[in-house]
Amino acid sequence: MVNVIIADDELPAVEELAFLLGKDARIGTIHRASSGAEALRALEQHSVDALFLDIHMPSLSGLDIARVISRFTRPPAIVFVTADEDRALEAFELRAVDYLLKPVRTERLAESVRRVCELMEGSTAAPEVITVDQGGVSRMIRRDDVRYVQAQGDYARLHTSEASYLIRIPLNDLERQWAEAGFLRTHRSYLVAMDQVRKVRIGAGRASLFVGDAELPVSRRHLPDVREKLEATRLRPSH
């Protein structure tokens, strides 16, 4: 069970997040804090695995708390929950496990809890982070948030559950660089994170993968690689 502290100077935000986390079977005790100082006191008094921190709080901000915690021998996981899209770089430099934007969606929160659990099990490293430019602003996104990549000439468009981002890297280059991270070329125009595939349709000379709400084509050329990948992950009965 994951014991957590929620810190936000807006009480409704604390209660909403506590309600959502309380529905997750992996979450144990939930401690509430309405300031950074209160969050640090709760951390001293209780055994905590993760903190869900708002960035903008009076006196001690969420980033200030993360800096304090980074000096701990065994720091708890940090998840930032904020309406501020522009502080992700600082957040990931402080080794945040995740960066959630308000209003928080249940599906996205569950992914954050999964990442906290992985960290507790010691099965995850620091996230690979990509810098993207959007409207003249540089943003940071995690590579494991990318569901699939779409070729657009000499550019590639990264699709996450929340948005898409154009980067100036050809799809062929990403195919080589991201192969070890589980991305597979499925079509001349698509590179797919195979652990994000929720359904496969193969038949009548046509194949496609369902990733999130998108149906992505699989070309005949790449179908053998897709079949091989799917076969490698298929569960088989033990003998």
UniProtKB/TrEMBL annotation:
Checking PROSITE patterns in the record gives:
HTH_LYTTR (PS50930), RESPONSE_REGULATORY (PS50110)
Start and end residues of each HTH LytTR-type domain:
130-232
Question: What residue stretches are annotated with the Response regulatory domain?
Answer: 3-117
Which keywords does the record carry? Answer: DNA-binding, Phosphoprotein
Tagged with keyword DNA-binding? yes
The entry lists its GO molecular-function terms as:
DNA binding; phosphorelay response regulator activity
Residues bearing the modification 4-aspartylphosphate:
D54
The reply to whether Phosphoprotein figures as a keyword in the UniProt entry is yes
Q: Which InterPro entries does the UniProt record give?
A: CheY-like_superfamily, LytR-like, LytTR_DNA-bd_dom, Sig_transdc_resp-reg_receiver
The protein's name: DNA-binding response regulator
The organism is: Arthrobacter cheniae
